[in-house]
Automatic annotation (TrEMBL), chain A:
Protein name: Tryptophan synthase alpha chain
EC number: 4.2.1.20
UniProt gene name: trpA
One Pfam family, short name: Trp_syntA
Function statement: The alpha subunit is responsible for the aldol cleavage of indoleglycerol phosphate to indole and glyceraldehyde 3-phosphate.
PROSITE patterns reported for this sequence: TRP_SYNTHASE_ALPHA
Active site (UniProt): E43, E54
Gene Ontology MF: a single term: tryptophan synthase activity
Entry similarity comment: Belongs to the TrpA family.
A GO CC term attached to the entry: cytosol
Protein source organism: Halovenus carboxidivorans
TrEMBL record, chain B:
Keywords, ordered alphabetically: Amino-acid biosynthesis, Aromatic amino acid biosynthesis, Lyase, Pyridoxal phosphate, Tryptophan biosynthesis
CDD domains, per the entry: Trp-synth_B (cd06446)
Matches recorded under NCBIfam families: trpB (TIGR00263)
Cofactor(s) this protein requires: pyridoxal 5'-phosphate
Residue ranges constituting the Tryptophan synthase beta chain-like PALP domain according to the UniProt record: 53-380
UniProt entry tagged with the keyword Amino-acid biosynthesis: yes
EC number per UniProt: 4.2.1.20
Subunit structure: Tetramer of two alpha and two beta chains.
Any one GO cellular component localisation term in the record: cytoplasm
UniProt KW Lyase keyword: yes
Similarity remark: Belongs to the TrpB family.
UniProt modified residues of type N6-(pyridoxal phosphate)lysine: K87
Annotated protein name in UniProt: Tryptophan synthase beta chain
Protein source organism: Halovenus carboxidivorans
Amino acid sequence: MSLEAAFADEPAFVPYLAAGDPSYEASIEYVEALARGGADAIELGLPFSEPIAEGTTIQEAIVRALDAGMTPDRYLEFVREVDVDVPLVCMTYYNLIYQYGESDGPRSFVEAAAEAGIEGFVVPDLPAEEAGPLRAACDEFGLDLVFIVAPTTEGDRLETMKEQVSGYVYVQARLGTTGARDEVSDYTERSLARIADWDVPKAVGFGIKTGDHAERIVRAGADGIIVGSALVDIVAEGYENGDSTEVVADRLEAKARELKEGALAGAPVEQ
Amino acid sequence: MSTDSKFGEYGGQYVPEALMPAIEELTDAYERYVLDNEDGFMDEFRERMADFGGRPLPLQRADQLSQRYDTEVYLKREDLLHGGAHKLNNALGQVLLAKYMGKERIIAETGAGQHGTATAMAAAHLDMPCEIYMGETDIARQRPNVFRMRTNGAEVNPVTTGRGTLKEAISETMRDWARTVENTHYVIGSVVGPHPFPSMVRDFQALISEEAREQIQEKTSDLPDSVLACAGGGSNTMGMFHNFVEDETVDLYAVEAGGSSLSVDEEEGVAPNSASLSTGEEGVLHGARTKLLQDSDGQIMESHSVSAGLDYAGVGPELAHLVDEGRVEPVNVDDDTALEAFHRLSQDEGIIPALETAHAFGYLEEHHDGLGETVIVNVSGRGDKDLETVIEETGNRDLDNAPDMSIFREIGGGML
């Protein structure tokens, strides 16, 4: 299934987890639990040692995954092994994509990721101006390249992204790096207004914690919601308390269901 | 983005989208105030570097070293800059620029604390609130510098993520900036990061070679044959080289920290050196494409050096480019050679150098035969900050010229 199709029928729920957090085996169970809970696509983080765009929550998840032995090759194995029927998006930093394999540039990794079953990329430290080689490799292997629109993104920069984006656009709903917050920002509506004429689905992220947040964001016009920190928090808490993989997976599935139902509740009523 | 954001294939702007507007605003300010001297910015910068910083600084002939090597050795005395190192050139330039831009708050990262203390001084001087991010491991190792920053009125925010050192502090400062771009300027500490930082920091540090190039011609009626500077991130290096780059008869040597070994431990993700120009591979870190110490997957390695200020896995993109072009020669010396050079300069010339600086003098000792008749070495900083490290490290090694510190054992001082 293509990324865009994941948004076709109803508001999409797109969760994020760092692959391999806190272990390879547990993480497989967690990703599958999210799919059971109603995920329409999953952003699967490939851990990089210097995640400059992440808040503390996801940064710590990345440290746990790296300490447990996650590497780009293990990640591709993970993608092949995890049993979900929704598209997987690789979220990582450019150096890992750039260094992989024999090619001088991103082509080798994109090829390997496509073979493993990845449908698209989100690369937070790769602005549209530097994205040419990755965009070309994604085109060659039929993958999507998602860009992040920040509340501060304006003018020419919006145009540069609009020309290159595919799959969906990741709308950052508030200034700052990822982290669950209690309030949903009114940046959402303003951010969506600026990209109203883009022909890709608009997924809003950064700060969504509850079904209620999800509902309000969809009501404000989003085609989908992206949730990371609120889910990573569940993994972190389970890890710290020594809870079993099954218990944590059940909590993730329940949280996923709450968020998906919130998103559905915000959808416009069919005429 | 303007095309001059790159040095060959290096440099660029690899930053999260939330930071791009800040980077664009800074690029505009750099072009107007620094390059075009709008509102007399550069005039005020030079005036403050004179009155507050103490510039111009001497180019001094090193009499004992000149005799020892049968070479004319000149010292560019950046150790005499206010604060005791070249760092103020950049910190004062950027804090002043932030003021011209109408920013209300300064943030900076620091590893060993040198850039943090320089930024705290500059911020106090220009009456700007200042917060410094510093890894908790570094805070424990560098207590005197933490006291200096606090004394100048800066907040020091401990960074507890990862391994708690410089690269985590840089990442954390970038996160703060992403939240606060509208009123905050990030004073980056070296010629690293996204454009315009590498060019802008170089331009502030270029006061070093602007003076040195004039001074050497006054003293010798000629250009030098070689110029030496230590290289970590590369800000004193680029400052010392910049005005000599066009002088093709002048050889430029960037002396990196060879640490204990140039080989890497892939399994542990550790490089026991900081020689990214000599041994690093191209990659993307902290906003720029440059040469990096990384494993075969592209994960960034922990670097190591006896000198905390050289301890960084990346290097400025312009230096990486100048090395590829063959204009700058990357060389390195190991920890022992740097420590011996530290003692030699202290004993022979009466100048206690920073351990960073000592690397350049270590190279001079080992290779003076190939450096020509006249050599300038940049004394990038003074070594008071390193005395405890030097006493401890010297006690662990068998160095030819170490001073006798047994007095502490005799009186029970317990330092060793």
